[in-house]
Structures are given as C-alpha cells and as structure tokens.
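__Protein archive entry__

___
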Amino acid sequence: MNTTPEHDARIAKMTFASVYPHYVTKVEKKGRTKDELHEVIAWLTGFDALKLQQLIDDKVTFEAFFAEANLNPNAHLIKGVICGYRIEDIETPLTKQTRYLDKLIDELAKGRKMEKILRST
C-alpha cells in the first residue's frame, strides 16, 4: 500500500510543534520519559535538545523539520507497519521519514529496550 499525494502533502504541511505534545503524552503515559523521547528523536535526526526546542518554537513543518535533519544512516533498518502503512513500501521520502519517527516513538511507548529502538548492533 502506498500513500496518496494528498496524504503526503498533508504530512509535509503539518507542524512538528502541533504533534510533539502528543508524542510526549504518549510516551509518558506508558512510563517513559521526555529525555528518552529526545534521545530517540536525536538518534533519527541529529537534533540536540536546543535545536529541537528551536524547531518547536519556530513551528516548522515536517517538511522543514526533515530538511534540516541529518538522518541516521541506520534509519533504513526501521521496518514494520505504522498508521496502516508498511514503512518499507512508502516511496515518498518525507512521508517515510515521518513514519520512521512515528515508529520509533511507538516502540518507545510500547516499552521496547532503547538499544533495540536505536538499532544498535
């Protein structure tokens, strides 16, 4: 199953700041911490806490968020289904990157060990 152009455009225009509080709530509700969330985001994007806060304050779109990111070379190891889409089958790079982030946060909330989430060998 692939995404539609409308779906991809909606993700591109969505602001990271509008979704971030939901990420925090999701992981904290499951007993994980905001620091762990930031560790996962930093692993995927290369953003430290200061840069992440700047992006939130600037209300950047996911398109701008991932344009500034230095994607982890092991991001391609993130596989599975998220939001009804198999990550490996998503062709639009931005949508795939956004789903990588969603999958990592989902794994964090489900209690997966950090070394597994961060695809450490």
Notes: Helices lie at 5-13, 16-29, 34-45, 49-57, 62-68, 93-109, 114-117.
